[in-house]
Each structure stands twice: as structure tokens, then as C-alpha cells.
Amino acid sequence: MKLFVTGGAGFIGSNFVLYWLCHHPDDIIVNYDALTYAGNLENIKELEGNSHHIFVRGDICDAVLVEQSMKACDMVVHFAAESHVDRSIMDPSAFVKTNVLGTQVLLDAAKKIGVQRFHHVSTDEVFGSLDLGSSEKFNESTSYSPHSPYSASKAGSDHLVRAYADTYGLPITITNCSNNYGPYQFPEKLFGLAITNILEEKKVPVYTPGNQVRDWLFVEDHCRAIELVLLKGKVGETYCVGGLTKDVTNMEIVKMILSLMGKGEDVIELVKDRPGHDVRYAIDWTKIQKELGWEPTVILEQGLQKTVEWYTTHQEWWKNIKSGSYTTYYEKQYTQR
Ligand code: NAD
Ligand code: DAU
């Protein structure tokens, strides 16, 4: 099988490409990525010289290059996106361009080429926010209520994907998953930022009041879920994918990381909250469990340990990132607010 993977030099995309070629070594992956600030060839360095991995640097909005690169591919797995909520609040335009227009360009190419499957990787953020303290969870029938420019653009992309299925019969599947964590996550997101700041002896910014809740999913569990959806999932279906956490607050997460790293809580700095901040996410992953036999396997304590170890032993990787334009972003986000 030949897969056309977008965003395969980013966090989840690179984990997926490495996972897939490890478990399906006879397949070929065309890895199409624009290498924005979040894309990094270091993530897929171990694939250098592997003839089953073809890297194409390109923008998903470039219809000509997309069509040319997707030719003869059987399946599309679409990860490429602007993915960071705080950046979408600073400047939404790139989010609409890549996440909405870029997805439409890919859908057009997939329709023209006649792929067997277009799999769209989406997020639980499209569903909005749950009440703190409630036991409610998002599932496949939860209605959409996005609050940030990022989640609104992802919601737009989900609607387009379903519209191409309904209108043109494109064989699609969608996964809406919760917060991923693990190796190769860009250190602007909570886990990578907290761990690397601690390693740099810096403060750890927690958005006030720190009681917000996310559903944490170890990235390899997510890759397995996508694998199952591609191999056994029903065309036209959506699957919600979540982790094994039970309502852990951001403050508790940071304290767990500090304890694992043997550091005191005095480095925690409560900073101004994110505008429009969703307070609670939780995923009901019963459908994918019942229909495809998937369930998450990595508990938070175990995943955190692995993630801390990874950042501790890959300091060159994140130190290269935490310089240049990252510094400008960090100052704008955390100093000037
Ligand atoms: P990321 O920001 O780490 O990586 C995004 C990748 O897409 C980068 O390699 C970047 O270079 C590439 N890219 C961006 N714009 C592009 C364009 N115009 N053309 C081609 N490539 C482009 O993102 P991630 O965290 O790995 O997320 C991957 C996907 O999963 C996204 O669609 C995101 O919405 C979704 N998702 C992420 C999470 C999470 O917790 N990280 C959770 C749910 C869903
Ligand atoms: O839920 C899935 C989503 O998870 C994905 O769709 C997004 O692409 C991904 O970025 C992630 O979004 P979040 O906004 O939930 O992730 P982030 O790591 O930015 O923040 C997690 C929580 O931690 C959130 O409540 C905000 C808080 N936070 C974040 C940062 C960066 C802090 O308290 N301090 C911080 O410095």
C-alpha cells in the first residue's frame, strides 16, 4: 500500500510515519510537509536512506504539487495543520488558510485521483468545553461548538471532509482525538514546555487558575488507533479517541512532572489565562473500542515518565528549537500579556 501522509514532520505525523513503517515495512509513505516552524526533519532522521519513505516539501494549499505528489497513492492520512491554540489567538489567518483551504485542496486531489480512503485527523476541541466537575464526555454525536480560531478552523475542515463524502462519495473516515503527549512534541504545548523549562531551570507558566482539565493520550496509542481505522474502520464513520486519564487538572499535571524530575513547586508561575479557554475535555472512546477493538494502553504516570526521559535524553533536539523565532513567540506569549 502507498500512503500519502500530510504533516509527517510534525509531532503526531512523525510518530505515525515511524510507527507505520516499523509495522508495515513493505508499504510506501509519501510524506508531504511544508516544514513550517512546527515541522522538523530531525523527527524522521532515522528514515534517511529508507526507500519506502519519500519526503516532499510542499504546502497543502499548492494544488498542483499536491496532485502530482498524491498520484498513485491508495490512502491519504491528513495531519498537516496549524495546531497551537495560543498562536491561533495571536493570528488566526494561517489557521484558516492551512486548516480549511488546505484541507479542501487535498479533498479535491483525493477525489480526482480516486483514493481508497481519505482519513482526516481532527480534535476533540471542535466539541467545545464541558463543565468542570461534570461526568459528561464527548462522543461521536456531540454537537460542534468550537471556541478558538484553531478549533473553529478544524471544525470547518471536518465539515468539508463530510461534505465531500456526502456530495461526491469520497470514502472518508475521521478521528477526533484528545490531547496527545510524547516524544517530538513541539515545546510550545504544556508537556514539552513544562519539561524543557524545568530542564533549563526556568519558571513553568500555568494559566490561571490551573484547574482546567484535559484528556491525555500517549501519542503511540493514537497512532495505533489511526492504524486500526485505516485497516478496519468503516467508510464514512467518525471515531473519538481518548486516553486513560481521569480528570487531571493542568496544575496536577505540572506538579506530577516536577515530582518526577525531583524539583520543587516554587517554579510554578500562575500567568494570565488564555482568552476563551475551554475548561474541560473528556472523551468517551467506547465506539472505537467496541467496533475496532482499540483502547489506550499507556497510563498517565507511565507516559509521563517516558516523555520526561525522552526530553531529558534529547536536549539537542529541543535546544535547537528553543532559539530564534521560538524566543520571539515565547516573549510575546508570556511576557507581553
Ligand atoms: P504539529 O503542529 O506538531 O505539526 C503540524 C505539521 O504540519 C508540521 O510538520 C508542519 O510543518 C505541517 N504543516 C503545517 N502547515 C502546513 C501546510 N500548509 N502544508 C503542509 N504541511 C503543513 O501538529 P500535531 O500536534 O502533530 O497535530 C497533527 C494533527 O493532529 C493536526 O491536524 C491537529 O489538529 C491534530 N490534533 C492534534 C492534537 C495534539 O494534541 N497535538 C490533538 C488532536 C488533534
Ligand atoms: O484537545 C486536543 C488539542 O490539544 C489539539 O487539538 C491541539 O492541537 C493541541 O495543541 C492541544 O490543545 P490544548 O490547547 O489543549 O493544548 P496546550 O498544550 O496548549 O494546553 C493544554 C492545557 O494547558 C490548556 O488547558 C492550557 C494549559 N497551558 C498551556 C500552556 C502552553 C498552561 O497552563 N500553560 C501553558 O504554558
Give a structural overview:
The mean pLDDT is 97. With 337 residues, the protein is α/β, with parallel strands linked by helices. Helix content is 42%, strand content 16%. The N and C termini lie far apart (49 Å). The strands form four sheets. The protein has a seven-stranded parallel beta sheet with strand order 3-2-1-4-5-6-11, sandwiched between helices. The chain has a two-stranded parallel ribbon with strand order 7-10. It has a two-stranded parallel sheet with strand order 8-13. The longest helix has 21 residues. The radius of gyration is 19 Å and the shape is globular. It contains twelve helices and 13 strands. It has a domain of 233 residues: NAD(P)-binding Rossmann-like Domain (Rossmann fold, 3-Layer(aba) Sandwich). 2'deoxy-thymidine-5'-diphospho-alpha-D-glucose (DAU) binds next to α6 and β8.
How is the secondary structure organized here?
Elements: E1 2-6, H1 11-23, E2 28-33, E3 53-57, H2 63-70, E4 75-78, H3 85-90, H4 93-113, E5 117-123, H5 149-168, E6 172-177, E7 179-181, H6 190-199, E8 204-207, E9 213-214, E10 216-218, H7 219-232, E11 238-241, E12 248-249, H8 250-260, E13 268-271, H9 286-292, H10 300-313, H11 315-321, H12 325-334
The structure holds nicotinamide-adenine-dinucleotide and 2'deoxy-thymidine-5'-diphospho-alpha-D-glucose.
Residues 6-7, 9-13, 33-36, 38-39, 59-61, 79-83, 98, 102, 121, 123, 154, 177, 179-180, 186 line the site of nicotinamide-adenine-dinucleotide.
